[in-house]
Amino acid sequence: MPSPAAIDSSPVRPAPRALIVLMLVQYGAGGALYPFLTPYLAARGFTVADISWVIVASAAATTVMPFVWGAIADHFVPVDRLVVALHFVAAGLLVAWSGAETLGTFIVLFAAYASFQQPTNSLVNALSFHHLDDPAQQFGRLRLWGSVGWMLPSVPIGLWLARLEDPSFDSVIWFAVAFHLAAAAGAPFWPHTPPLGRHRSFGSFFRDVRALLAQRDLLLLLAVAFFTLASFPLMFFFSSLALDRAGVPKPWLGPLLSIGVAFEVPLLWSLRAVLRRFGFRTVLGLGIVATILRHVIYAATRDAVSLVLASLLIAPSIVCFLIGTSLAVDRLAPRGLRASAQALYTLAGAGFGSVVGLVTCALLSGYSDDVDDLARPFVLGAGFSTVGFLLLTRVRFGGASRV
Questions:
Q1: What is the pLDDT of residue 108?
Q2: What is the distance between the alpha carbons of residues 321 and 325, in angstroms, rounded to a whole number?
Q3: Topology (CATH) of 17-397
Q4: Which tens digits make up the pLDDT trace of 147-176?
Q5: Are 18 and 185 contacting, i.e. CB atoms less than 8 angstroms apart?
Q6: Which of 65, 117, 230, 333 could form a disulfide with 90 if both were Cys (CB 3.0 to 4.6 A apart)?
Q7: pLDDT value of position 307
Q8: Within its chain, how far is the Cα of 334 from the centroid?
Q9: What HEC string does the chain produce?
Q10: Alpha-carbon distance 332 to 281, whole Å?
């Protein structure tokens, strides 16, 4: 595969408006559910150990299904239609999950939900890349609408919960379902994106995957994603629990955590200029450093103000590393295999990385209800991210290193 050429400064067409709306509803579903997930499960009577296994099951599902859906999108089904179908099924599974009674049922149904919901993130990214003239220049400003969508449900949910004497968090589920159904209902408007794979057989697909993995720098970048994203679920899921233990009222967990998401908007708006000025290695490195620092602060203190301020570091973690890596993967992959490349990225990071991070944390800490045990997930997360940072120094981005 030829080395990607550096991005020029020629004018490009603006992103289709439909992609902006898709980003809003795509991330609105996650913003309605995930900031409130652990408080919701705790309100249903589950212990911290129970909750951890629910999360591990969803991460395990993410190791497989994005890969499967990415292959289908590249070779068999238009990406836009696949995204719609996955959102529709996810809505039904989330409703069924909210009615579960036993831990086993919660684990199985949430794993099923994650297998349909989580892959839509990488699929929407791949869909967007196909319809942008220059993804590295344009995607940041498109993706900021995803951050806006993530924040949309947090404040109304928080205000609703604040009105209740004994919040049941049931409204969280219905907000998320509404966003999933909105993504499905928008089917006629999403840009049509047929498969671009050269062949329509699984044999050719596996040959393409082997070709992707034969690229040394892409493989190293996937290793960076594995270790760094092993720390992300520890940050995402245990941060709200740490804030809860620090005395922050449950209804305000989502709005307070959304402050950090709000800072993603200016970072995403400037991502193009930052990438052009500093290149992928520096930008990804800054994202990892922000992740390490956030973990260290959460491990070192239980002061609510310090934790809320540290939560702002989620912005460079997401924008500089998570999105920056997605763009780097897109630049290093052939055009006809972008969905598969994004699926490999999700598989390595949000899939295998998340499972390893969560299971390692479970083995080391035992997920005790003791407040002091909350330091262990964050110490572990800082360690995983440090390994990712060291590996990043060995990646050669070639023509994609400076954009």
A1: 92
A2: 6
A3: Growth Hormone; Chain: A; (1.20.1250)
A4: 888 888 887 877 777 776 655 667 788 889
A5: no
A6: 117
A7: 93
A8: 23
A9: CCCCCCCCCCCCCCCCHHHHHHHHHHHHHHHHHHHHHHHHHHHCCCCHHHHHHHHHHHHHHHCCHHHHHHHHHHHCCCHHHHHHHHHHHHHHHHHHHHCCCCHHHHHHHHHHHHHHHCHHHHHHHHHHHHCCCCHHHHHHHHHHHHHHHHHCCHHHHHHHHHCCCCCCCHHHHHHHHHHHHHHHHCCCCCCCCCCCCCCCCHHHHHHHHHHHHCCHHHHHHHHHHHHHHCCHHHHHHHHHHHHHHCCCCHHHHHHHHHHHHHCHHHHHHHHHHHHHHHHHHHHHHHHHHHHHHHHHHHHHCCCHHHHHHHHHHHHHHHHHHHHHHHHHHHHHCCHHHHHHHHHHHHHHHHHHHHHHHHHHHHHHHCCCCCHHHHHHHHHHHHHHHHHHHHHHCCCCCHHHCCC
A10: 13
Cβ-contact 98, 105 below 8 angstroms: no
Residue 276 has pLDDT above 60, yes or no: yes
Ordered by start, the domain boundaries in the chain are 17-397
Instruction: Using the predicted structure, report yes or no on whether residue 368 has a pLDDT greater than 80.
Output: no
Q: Which of 1, 4, 237, 29 is nearest to 134 (CA)?
A: 4
Biggest distance spanned by C-alpha atoms of the chain: 62
Contact 349, 226 (CB under 8 A): yes
Confidence of residue 6 (pLDDT cuts 50, 70, 90): very low
What CA dihedral angle connects 47, 51, 56 and 58, to 10 degrees? 160
| pTM assigned to the model | 0.74
315 or 74, higher pLDDT = 315
Q: What mean pLDDT is reported for the chain?
A: 81
